[in-house]
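Re: [help] complex structure
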Amino acid sequence: MKSMNSLKSLNSVLSFDLQLDCGDHSISAAATLDTASTGLLGPSGSGKTTLLHAIAGLVSPLRGRIQIGEEVLFDSAAGIDVPPEKRRIAVLFQDGRLFPHWSVRRNIEIGSSATTEDQQFVVEIVQLLELAPLLNRMPDTLSGGEKQRVALARALAMKPRWLLLDEPLSALDSRLKKRILPFLIRIRDHFDIPILHVSHDVSELIYVSDTLLHLTDHQLVGPSSYQELLLSSCPGQIEAMNMLSATVEINDHGEARLRCGELVLISTAELKPGNHLATVRIAPSEIAISTGNLGNISIRNRIQGTVTRIHPWGRSCLVEIDAKQRLLAECTEESCQKLGLEKGREVTILIKASAVHLFLNR
Amino acid sequence: MSFSAAEMEALIISLRVALLSTAIVAIPGVFLGWLLAKPPWRGRALVDAVVMLPLVLPPVVVGWGLLMLLGSRSPFGIDIAFSGLAAAIAGGVVGLPLLIRASRIGFESVDSRLEDAARTLGMNRLQAFAKISLPLAAPAIAQGLILCLARSLGEFGATITFAGAIPGSTRTLPLMIHEQLQAPGGDQLAMRLVLFSALISLAAMATSEWLARKVRSRNGAQR
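Output below.
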């Protein structure tokens, strides 16, 4: 996991305490966001988009307060409601919402001023998001992934104080998603613009966020780390997942060896030759635990480790294992008892090479 | 085929009156179209019905209504009956529903969420409307303006009631055709004018259809 990126300036800390009307239910949401990238997790229909739109000023909260640094954007008690065009909060919508009658270039430039400095900034964004070949095209000639990249560029070009991403990848297939995600990482690392990213895909969020928020039926929980959030939630609410940063080496047999610190994993993921930086994703249900002699077995990844904690998880358990990296494995209560799993127990964990998935960071 | 001075005069008056009437109703028509395209608001159905009235009422009733409102017995003290302006207003009022309908369809075909996107990018309500919704609805609005112009060109009942058929001022092509048909031996002249009117109307409808197609293809590309 990456280290936590705190915001460089206190002036960008976004805090809110809101009561929101989401049609069939209302939610209360209070949080202070002070990391460079925050993820917002929650089932569809829970009000994630409404919360985002309230922050951007597109919907009015029932009551509450929103502020960035010391500046109050909304305060129902004081009658303050800064219109969206004065908030300088950019939104990347799920469907891009490019203006169909304007070229890509005009779409991107609409939010930026004509100063040389801003124009230079636009050039930088266009370069970073590899949009130069598309500048003279019309939006209806672009593919879904291209549209989202243009919409991202448009949102950035206005130099927003915050960038809100509203499930920007949900309309894309997983192959395209994997190609866009690295761009989001680039944006996060390159520009000093804090990001609030909404998604229902846990791996996507862990991949790009420092901390996470969880919007359940009526309440917002967090911000906290993924593991904290996961273990404090009810089983089934949040997908359990292991995410590790890795460098990828391809050996002579074309096999991918992933170096996550001292832990080395083998993956069947197909990669082009060369070295890559990647994020490894392994579902806890794909990890098996053994305490005895293994004998002959086809599983390639066998790692020695020590049990550090066991969390009851519905009808099964999440076993936290220190195996040069902290990993979560899911097994049934019966198995836990049969294996005599407890804190400090030495175990071998087994992961099939086909269960080791990759996100490439370019 | 050459025109007599009187025919030429009627043609010029027709065009002048039709252009003026379209200009008069352009802004209120587009505004009402936009208003009716908004999500349902209290009283929308009533406003919708009232603005569509001139389309279904006999034009002579419209003319009589205008005479009551803007004639010698006007409650507002405005008497413009039997003037060029009256002819333009009569034509405009009967053409207005067509402009409203077309503008409304145009605005309804624009994804209103684009304006939200525009707002977050720094545009205020008016700028978002002027830069996003209006240009996207423009082909439909243009279609409405042409229909309104064509309707106004052909207006007869409201015009003769409210503006009369004064040669050199309010005697438009349809009024002159009517006059010729009443006169002994005027059939042939009337026929020429009828043909001529039909040509103008056809050209207007063709342009309108072409614009409609443009709207459809643009909206198709949007999705």
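The radius of gyration of chain A is 22 Å.
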